[in-house]
Amino acid sequence: MNKNSLHKELFSNLKTTGAITFSSKSLVNKMLSYADFTGAKTIVELGGGDGSITRGILERMDPDAVLYVFEISQAFCDALEKEFVSENVHIICDSASNIENYLAGGKADLILSSLPFSLIAREEREKIYEKSKTNLSVQGKFIQICYSYLLRFQFAKYFPHIHTSFTLKNFPPAFIMICN
User: Fold this and answer.
1) CATH number of the domain that 122 lies in?
2) Which of 8, 9, 13, 84 could form a cystine bridge with 89, CB 3.0-4.6 A?
3) Of 46, 38, 47, nearest to 135 (Cα)?
4) 10, pLDDT greater than 80
5) Contact 177, 118 (CB under 8 A)
6) Is the pLDDT of residue 31 over 50?
7) What is the average pLDDT across 1-8?
8) Coil, helix or strand for 41?
């Protein structure tokens, strides 16, 4: 899928993509700077989109780590599957609320998310929060890109420790919530 097709998918499904543009390289680098990839064997990405975060994860993760990328758009999944052909990358065209169905009883060391929680129905959103917390290892981190600081209060119901960062180097400017 070329960039024009990706942008068409982005705009035609604004309610599920929750963005007017893809994450900038600067935002991705800042987000991933809060993740310790050394020794992380199970990594989950929620909202694969155009693969900008996926590419950053693959550049940093250990060769024996496994990456599970959740995306609900079939068009994005198809593009991700074509770009990321590897035995240790699993593109999953399903809701993040079903994370436990794919981890085979294991726990994620890192969950990196760009899901548009402000646009996700409350019941589904809370299910994703709960499943993320439940399927995260004790020392694991849940790192979220978001555009509203108010989401911090929703995350606080599930994660006792939250560090917040902000970057202007994205359109629109974004918050990064680092939760554990």
Assistant:
1) 3.40.50.150
2) 84
3) 46
4) no
5) no
6) yes
7) 47
8) coil
Mean pLDDT of 12-21: 49
H helices, E strands: number in the chain:
7, 7
In the numeric block, which tokens belong to residue 70?
A: 């959740």
DSSP string for 106-168: --EEEEEE---GGGS-HHHHHHHHHHHHHTEEEEEEEEEEES-TTHHHHHTTT-S-EEEEEES
Give me the amino acid identity at 99. Answer: I
Across 63-85, average pLDDT: 97
Whether residue 35 contacts residue 26, with contact meaning beta carbons closer than 8 Å, is answered with no
CA dist 91 and 35 (Å) reads 21
Q: pTM score > 0.85 for this model? A: yes
21-30, 71-80, 131-140, range with the lowest pLDDT? 21-30
User: Residue 140: what are its φ and ψ, rounded to 5°?
Assistant: -70, 165
Q: Once rounded to an integer, what is the mean pLDDT over residues 35-45?
A: 98
Residue appearing with tokens 């359109």: 171
| Cβ atoms of residues 31 and 98 within 8 Å | no
Tokens of 144: 């979220």
**Boundaries of domain holding 51:** 3-179
